[in-house]
Amino acid sequence: MNSKTPGLYIHIPFCLSKCPYCDFYSATSISAIPAFLNGLFSEMEIYRHRFDPFDTVYLGGGTPSLLSPEQLEDILINVRKNFDLIPNTEITLEANPADLNPPFLESILEMGMNRINIGIQSFDEKILRFLGRRHSKKQAISAIETSRKAGFNNIGLDLIYGVPDQGIMSWLDTLGQALVFSPEHLSCYQLTLEAETPLGIRRQAGEFSVPGDELQYEFFMKTSGFLEEAGYIHYEVSNFARGIEHFSRHNQKYWDHSPYLGLGPSAHSFRANQRWWNHRSFDQYLASINAGNLPVQETETLTIEQLRLEALYLGLRTKKGVSLDDFKNQYACDLFTEKKELLAKLEEVGFISIRGGFLYPTQNGLAIADSLSLI
Ligand code: SF4
User: Fold this and answer.
1) How many Å lie between the centroid of ligand 1 and the Cα of residue 61?
2) Among 54, 101, 319, 333, which one is most buried in terms of CB atoms within 10 A?
3) 214 in a domain, yes or no?
4) What whole-number distance in Å separates Cα of residue 95 and Cα of residue 72?
5) pTM score of the predicted model
6) Looking at residue 12, what DSSP letter applies?
7) 281 falls within a domain
8) What are the pLDDT digits (tens) for 294-352?
9) By residue range, what is the domain housing residue 369?
């Protein structure tokens, strides 16, 4: 059913300190890194030859840049030992600006990493402090400049908007500062506060409020307009690239039902009609592996109808939209006849347009893409 090239995701579950808005799984006990790496290499061995060759490897987290160049190289050596990589595989490292210096960057380039995604979040000191980031504006600027100087020609920056008290002008100023460095890729995320995070708890206690729907919509539209005017392609809800060749090859796999294998605590995997995810707890993850088992917490089998709806909503997160022919071939479903009422409704409220055999999200459709499936 799925002939797309798979991608490999590796979750590095460590951070030096925990940002108070973050809901990702990570621990601050960095002394456990060697034990984690042993577990990770065993997990790779269990999956050996179980996936077709990958054309992307993404080291995310957590904070992968906390690892030493030697530890990162060990990861790539084990990846190559256990799996086949297609020539010119996109290999991305997520990095905290505070960790980037010339020797580190030169080492990781030399070992084959060809894309770096830096968690800048903001160029405003006050916002960086509110978000509990461990880097300063100065370190953010230096990280981008040093990455460029070291030879990275595929740099992505992560930025956050919708922070309490942040006005649109202050956000556009941050975007303008990012553009000074002509990054190949920008991810602009709206701040979301899960209830159980420290900032989520403070918000519930009434210490501050976050922008309401109307203001969030304005942030979204202004971001899209500002970056498109600067020549960036708004190719997915939160993602912008300075050309088609700079779309994140790895992230696209999540939106087009390509298979992917996720290794490490809490990592998710997907293939054909199955999705599975690893134990979130580091101890449980290691215990499973040490017992010779896959550290899988749960597996979900999707029905054909679930796959179809998911493919539709994921496709409508992207500018390229959904090809009716491709959809028919992959999911044995003629959207025009089988989802006629749903499409008519989405078109009527202005969230999609249908032309040339494709369904495209409108700007308004992209703005509410996270809740499209609830309509
Ligand atoms: S550095 Fe990233 S993964 Fe770590 S706590 Fe902060 S936001 Fe979460």
Assistant:
1) 7
2) 54
3) yes
4) 12
5) 0.95
6) E
7) no
8) 999 999 999 999 999 999 999 999 999 999 999 999 999 999 899 889 899 999 999 99
9) 308-374
